[in-house]
Amino acid sequence: MSKELKRLIVNELISEYKDIKNFIILNYKGVNAIQSNILRRELSEKDIKVKVVKNSLAAIAFKEIGIPALGQMFEASSAIATSNNDPVVLG
């Protein structure tokens, strides 16, 4: 992946997550495509978005947002689930 593409992805992550009130980091390891689609559909019904992210790029984005410790939590296959609604539903 070129540096320019990585920078574009980081900028997209920054703009997407800088104002999000509620999010959790998911360990996506071992989840197959069918399970992933079911999970996304069920969460979408609750107005929760899930995005699989490249760990190193997510770490850079959260560092630039001002939450560097969060970037250290990304391991293995990670995804971010976000919602601007009730944080209990997200959990």
TrEMBL record:
Output a single Gene Ontology CC term carried by this record.
large ribosomal subunit
Top-level taxon of origin = Bacteria
**GO molecular function, a single term:** structural constituent of ribosome
Q: Name any Gene Ontology BP term.
A: translation
Q: Which Pfam families match?
A: Ribosomal_L10
UniProtKB keywords:
Ribonucleoprotein, Ribosomal protein
Q: In which family does this protein belong, per the annotation?
A: Belongs to the universal ribosomal protein uL10 family.
- Annotated function: Forms part of the ribosomal stalk, playing a central role in the interaction of the ribosome with GTP-bound translation factors.
Q: Would you tell me the protein name for this molecule?
A: 50S ribosomal protein L10
Q: Which organism is it from?
A: Candidatus Scalindua rubra
